[in-house]
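TL;DR need structure tokens for one chain.
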Amino acid sequence: MIPPSVTAARAKEIPHHRTPEFRALTQKVHEQLKNIFCTSHDVYSMTCSGSGAMEASVVSLLSPGDVVLCVNAGKFGHRWVDLCKRYGMEVIELVVPRGETLDPAELQNALRQKPNIKAVFTQLTETSTGVTFDLEAMGKMISGTDAIFVVDAISGLAADRFLPDAWGVDVVVTGSQKALMLPPGLAFISLSQKAWKCVETSTCPKYYFDLKRYRKGHDQGDHPFTPAIGLYIQLEESLRLLQEETIEHIWRRHEILARATRAGMEALGLQLFAKRSSNALTAVYMPTHVDAKAMINIMKTELGVTVAGGQDELKDKIFRIAHLGYIDRFDILAAVGSVEIALSHLGEKGSLGKGITAAQKILAEPF
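>> reply
TL;DR here they are.
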């Protein structure tokens, strides 16, 4: 969902990307993004999806044969594994049962056993399960080693509380279409000085995703390739809205929306899937006797509410409700209410109103 003023910004005239006007815009948004990233390091932008910035962090920091550790707790944790293997890294995979979070002791043990680990890859929020990780604890362990700490924050940035500089995170990746309230098409990445030292020694083949290209001319607002100019114009407006709200208030808003959603689901007798839930989305077990496709279809076609199903091995086992970005209190009430109605249509009687009542009690709290 996109704020109306951000949508309207698409109607503005598009300047050429080598003009002083666009360079000034780029410099402005890159500086403002530091506040959303909660970092003092430069933030770079790329015209691609968040996965493109994930790939950039692999090919620009590493060399074939490097030993890396990937936390695989879902579909997007597996994406780190796949990316690193494609470029010839030796991958140590910490597999976490779906719906659970990583025990920091497992990470500490792996770092001790393999002191030559070059990088640790994980998520802030594993979107496929709704789990968020204790990055502060992980960062403390990693910062005492030579390894760099790389975090995919595509779903979690500006939803879950995240302090990368204070927590020892070296690389942060995100995309435009989540809490930044934009259409898809832009990705963003920040690197610590420790990470830039790895960039200087990387031998992976790369061209479009070579971060050295993005650093060159960054201070002057230049891009190495033609950027998605219209999205930058919209980004200026979305950042204006986020700056006005402040990051602490944004985190508070997401936390309330998340608690209300989870309270609504539990009041309906549904079980939450994630053991350590993110403020970006809530994953819920599908009742075993309910047809998952039928429920999601009723919500979408009859009630106008779209929720996501499970991915890969979780297909038809869970559904996921987003509560990030431009979503507000009444969107949550609509989502909870539509779950009630869909379940009622599928034979689950006696639940109408219970979820909404539980959610309202939390949504009454001030942001």
